[in-house]
Each structure stands twice: as C-alpha cells, then as structure tokens.
Amino acid sequence: MSKGLSILGGRVIDPIIGFDQITDIHIAEGKIIAIGQPPVDFVPDWEIEANQKIVCPGLVDLSVRLREPGAEHKGTIISETRAAAANGITTVCCPPDTNPVIDTPAVAELLQQRAMAAGMAKVLPLAALTKGLQGQQLAEIGDLKEAGCIGVSNALQPIANTEVLRYAFEYTANCDLSVFLYAQEPWLGHNGCAHEGITSMRLGLRGIPEQAETIAVARDLLLIELTGVRAHFCRLSTARAITMVKEAQARGLPVTTDVSAHQLFLIDEDIGDYNGQCHVYPPLRSDIDRQGLRAGILDNTITAICSDHQPHETDAKLNLFASTAAGISGLDTLLPLCLKLAQELEIPLVTLLGFVTYKPAQILGIDAGTLAVGKSADICIFDPQQQWQLHEYDMHSCGHNSPFLSWQFSGKVTTTLINGKVVYVSKTIK
Question: Tell me, what DSSP letter sits at residue 321?
Fold first, then answer.
C-alpha cells in the first residue's frame, strides 16, 4: 500500500453516525482508509498529532460569495477559498449573482477551473434560474447542470411573475435538481434596510416587515406542492417562516432550509446608532425571531447553518446606514459561532456539527461531511479550548466587515485537509 498520513490521538467526531471517540485516522491516496488501528501494510510518511483537539469532517458552507468574477476588489477565488481553508471549510456553494451571472456553462466552468487551480476549497456553483437573473426567461438549466452546477437559484432577485416561477420549478424538477430560494416579496419592504419595528422607527430607517418573507414563503410552498420540485429556502430570518416550513415538512413536502450564523445571535437592536456592520439582508430581526430560529435548530426544522459570506472593502461600510453595502464577512466566524451556539443551547457538539457538515452536504446532494472509511479525506482539526478575540488583522478573508469584531470566542482551526492534502496549518502550530 502506498504511503499516506495519520492523524493521531484526536477526538474524532463524525456527526452523520454520532461517532465521538478519541482515536486515530489513517489516510492514503486522498481517502480515509481506516479509523483506529491502521491496516497491517500501512506506513504513513507523515503524522499529525491531534491530542486535545477535535477532528471532524470539513465544513460545508451553503453560501459563500467569492466575488470573482466581477468584484475582485472585494475578494477573489484564491483569497476567499484560502480563508475558507483557514476556517476548516472544505466545500463552499457559490450563488449565481456573479458578474457575469452564472447563466452559461462557460462562466460555471471558469469558476470551477479557477477554484481547482487554487486548490484551497471545493467550489460548487449554483446556476441562475433565469437568464441574467431577470426573472423573465429560463436559463439553460440542463446545460448548466452538465457544466457542474449543483442546483439553481435566482439569488436575491425575486421572480415576480408567478407563472414563470411555476414553469421554472417544473423544469428544475425534470432536471432532477434542487431550487434554492430566497424568500422575498418583490414590492413589500422594497428599498428597506432594517427590520420593520421599534428600532427602525427610532432610527428613521425604511423597514422590511416580516411579511416580505412570509408571503413569499407561502407562495413558494404552494408552487412546490404543485410541481413536486425539491426546494431549499436560503437564509430564512423570521420565526413565522420557520413555522410555515415546519408545517410543510410535516405534510411531506421536499423542503429544507438554512439560517445564517449571525441571525442566531444578533437582532435589530444591535444596529445601535447606525452600525453599518449590522446592515445585512435579510435584515436582523427581533428577539422573538431569533428565538424562533434557535427553536428551529433544536427541533431540526432548520437543516443547516451557513456563513452567508459577503466580503466588502472597508469603504463599503462607511456610508450612511441605508447606503452601506449589505452583508457580513462570515467565514472567520462560522465555526466559533456554532461552538458558541452549542454551548448556549446545550446541544451536544456531535449534533451541532451536523448542521455544518453532513446536513448541508445532503442538501447539495454531494458525498461529503463524513469521516467514513472510503470517503474523501476532507477534514477539519480544531482546538476547542483555544480562546481568542476577533480582530480585523486576524481575519483571513479580504473582507473585514463583521459585527463580531472584539467578540471573544473559543475554538480555533489548526489544520485543514482536502482530499488528504494539508491545505492549512495554523501559524501557532509548532
């Protein structure tokens, strides 16, 4: 047997089977070949000491904007996949709202080729549901699937024409793909920048009511029932929407959903006195909504947690609140926020890690998020006890736009492997 690599003495967690045990992992030719005792003829040429550390599947992030092509001043495929690797994220899903839009095989293939050349994370593009994301004419979904697109989405551009949306669902179902939906009613709350409530009224900000989300969820659920398409709701933010999805799941509809990590911790009151770092879309909602999202984690209505990574240059967050760019640079805080959530909700770590490993992998329909023998060795090793504070100069992404600056966290990634290859080692590792 060819030589390989062994990870020794770590607390190995595989959420998909509930495995949680201090043991060793052995890797050869990019795959996991044994857990525990190595094969008799296995001689590793490298060993990673993982004592007092957690070894888990590489994280799968459902929403990472790489900013390339079209906005390289905010980030690039190289910079953002490097940031992903530094945070234990081995697979990222890229929305189609690049420039040009991912509505042709050429753009999809270009993105994947550049990601493969970078070699820091596996990049899975979503295809545009309609040409140019204009909501009028369907994109060539079949061709985009052949080009490697993992699903379809119209990103943040709503499809106002319900007939077009119905045909899009039917076509997507015939292509055996999932549709990724951003639930937003096209006109209600148009040009809003904050949750419609006491905080937006106090600050004089144009509000986005919860009904902008729930009306869209209601329409989409009816069309999902009509067409039978597999659907995933992206970044839901209201307790009411989570309840609607829960009821649809109980009726057997093929529906999943995710939530942004920051929505599980921040609320509209955190805007304070126009803190542009808290300008996100969908907006930070009320404390009741935050509690509803957390309840959705506890009862598994919510299937996955993502970073919703949107890096911006410094100037993009320095304008008046309503004029600042929406979005958080979330790669650096995905894992630590999840660890913090597990502690606050008293969820076993093996359970919580499932929301950022095998569950998002299942949504994408990919063979990832597990440490099973024979699977690709996409692995995250982190020190759960390491205390640290988030500073701009510590962030790995080109974007330093985060409302979590100066927050104290526990848990730091030390090593990341993709296909058995070490793509990140912390500078603190000797």
Answer: G
Which residue range(s) make up the domain with 136? 57-364
d(CA 352, CA 341): 8
Which H or E run includes 368?
none
| 308 belongs to the catalytic site | yes
* Angstrom distance (rounded) from CA 83 to CA 412: 13
Contact at 8 Å (CB) between 242 and 185?
no
pTM greater than 0.85 (yes/no): yes
CA distance 127 to 109: 11
Q: Is residue 92 a contact partner of residue 146, using CB atoms and an 8 Å limit?
A: no
State the chain's mean pLDDT as an integer.
Answer: 96
Task: Report how many domains make up the chain.
Answer: 1
The one catalytic residue in 14, 24, 103, 308 is 308
CATH number, residue 356: 3.20.20.140
Query: CA 358 to CA 182: how far, in whole Å?
Result: 22
Token readout for 311 is: 């890096």
CA dist 426 and 251 (Å) reads 47
Q: Token digits for 312?
A: 């911006």
Q: 164-186, pLDDT tens digit by residue?
A: 999 999 999 999 999 999 999 98
CA distances to 195, 296, 348, 350, 377 from 18, rounded to whole Å, are 38, 20, 10, 6, 18
